[in-house]
Write a structure and sequence with these properties.
By secondary structure, this protein is an alpha+beta fold. It has two domains: about 40 residues, no CATH class; about 35 residues, no CATH class. The protein is built from three helices and two strands, in the order H-E-E-H-H. A two-stranded antiparallel sheet has the order 1-2. A hairpin with a 3-residue loop joins strand 1 and strand 2. The two termini are about 30 Å apart. About 0% of the residues are buried. The model has no long low-confidence stretch (mean pLDDT about 90).
């Protein structure tokens, strides 16, 4: 996809900084709006990066989250 002529012609390949591997090329926003242009400014989250935050928002306390992590039910960074 990164080398597809249409993808390249539309400037959809962008480089972002990834937390673990440094600069990586990824696909940008496929829809181009003239009055409200968008851009990709960061890479996808690292696996498990937001697990604790999301589970906390759903009412889990730290002990319960630690139990889930220890049991292998979830991955948390």
């Amino acid at each position: 996809m990164h080398k597809d002529p249409q993808t390249v012609a539309r400037d959809m390949v962008v480089e972002v900084d990834h937390a673990q591997v440094g600069p990586v090329k990824t696909l940008g926003i496929p829809v181009k709006f003239s009055e409200t242009p968008g851009q990709v400014t960061s890479s996808a989250p690292v696996y498990g990066q937001h697990t604790r935050e999301v589970l906390s928002e759903y009412g889990f306390d730290e002990g319960e989250i630690d139990t889930l992590v220890s049991a292998g039910a979830v991955v948390a960074d």
